[in-house]
Amino acid sequence: MLGKLIKHEFKATWRVLGLLDGALVVLGLIGFLVMGTIKGFTESDIKNEGLQGLIVASYITWFALYFLAIFAANLGTTIFLMIRYYRSMYSTEGYLTFTLPVKTSQLLHAKLITGYLWAFFSYLLTGLSVFFMGAGAVSQLPPKEQEEVFEGLMELLTFFKAGTVALGAVTLLCSVLQGLLFLFFCISVGQLWQKHKIAGAILCFVITSAVTRAVMSIATIGRLFAISSLMSFDVESYYSGTLAITLVYSLISGVLFYLVIRYINDHRVNLDG
Amino acid sequence: MNEILICRELTKSYSGGAAAIDHINLNLNSGCVIGLLGPNGSGKTTLIKMIAGILTPTSGSLLVDGMPVGPQTKAIVSYLPDQTYLNPAMTVSQVLDYFGDFYRDFDRNRADTMLAQLSVNPYVKLKTMSKGTREKVQLILVMSRHARLYLLDEPIAGVDPAARDYILHTIVNHYDPGATVILSTHLIADVEPVLNEAVFLQQGRISLYDSVDNIRQREGKSVDALFREVYRCWGN
What we know:
The complex is a heterodimer of chains A (273) and B (236).
Chain A: H1 2-36, H2 43-47, H3 49-90, H4 94-97, H5 104-138, H6 143-157, H7 162-190, H8 197-226, H9 235-267
Chain B: E1 3-13, E2 19-29, E3 33-37, H1 44-52, E4 59-64, E5 67-68, H2 71-74, E6 77-80, H3 92-102, H4 108-117, H5 131-143, E7 149-153, H6 161-174, E8 180-185, H7 188-191, E9 197-202, E10 205-211, H8 212-219, H9 223-230
């Protein structure tokens, strides 16, 4: 039954989320083409002060619009997943959802799996989109400068040990799941209110965010105080330590959010109001 | 006759309020149409939601076909809530696929036939339909299942007399022999002809449970007349 739930979850979300992901791909391609226009400017164009200002302003405007659009597409994915979760679970649609012959845990797992995959695709496409634009800019450079860029990139990628990079990847993957669980947790808690369920979810979001940020800030400050001297400061170990703390925080808070959602869905569903 | 529903000291309390269902003991037999009758706020919807698995009892036990409420009972219970509950962005055909995927007892041919009788285009989105048509589509979906227990919460509330006739006709003609229909309403006169048994609920408690024939014989009046007497709103 979990497979069927996932299938119908994808059916209900693919149009909107597929469109948003498509927008990320298109933005990346446009970025590649826009960066390709650099080659079109001659040396005299660049030396011309009036034209130089116009060129710089155009590229700044493009970058601003590009990053705004990328942000909007990612935010749109998150908001749509939240709306979908709320409507299908706690609005009148919940009368059907909660009377399907499946375990309530499967309802949550289906939403988490589909939501996670969409969020993952969204982040992946954002990365690819930025990469395309960067590739567009680099492709305009003379071969020698291209080489320098690749060398710099390789230096950046090999700056940390493979273990730290792997820890970073695992932390990122867990954080995405924890983020999704956090949003679902806020919506589930919000629906406990007899009325103003959305306001309840926002209140839960604000309070929980404040508490978790305070905890993380204390942990970060504590670690900074623990540094005895700048001479012995090791970027690698500090960075991997930060990742480890973030991973532990994601796992603990994620499990707590999951258990609360499970309890609410099993015992405290409130479809009235 | 098998017992489709057994309630033992079943109670549902909401925080800060009196018990909506107060220590109910009830055994319902299979194969009949049972009216769950009572005024607004008597606990009809709360009881139905607990049987459907939407609400969790505060205390007591509830067995459907001998099983505690869970995925197995949801597979044999066909539930019609007292409001429109389908995703309005879906077409009728998509909803039919959805029911067919999740309910093994869903009879697609029966649904298609009933929809054709109502001239409902299966490729039309639910949001483009009138409220009345959406309610009929919901009823068709629910009655197209070969369920053991049908839970129909206020199926005739707020509809015109012609639609009321259609709904009652659909219910009576489409439930399987051996299955049980629990129909909650406060419009007794309309449903009385189709009822075999009646349960009177009053402030979360059962004040009467008997066959409709026995009630008429013993009280010398119709169930509707008895209901009006039991629940009258002014002096004794």
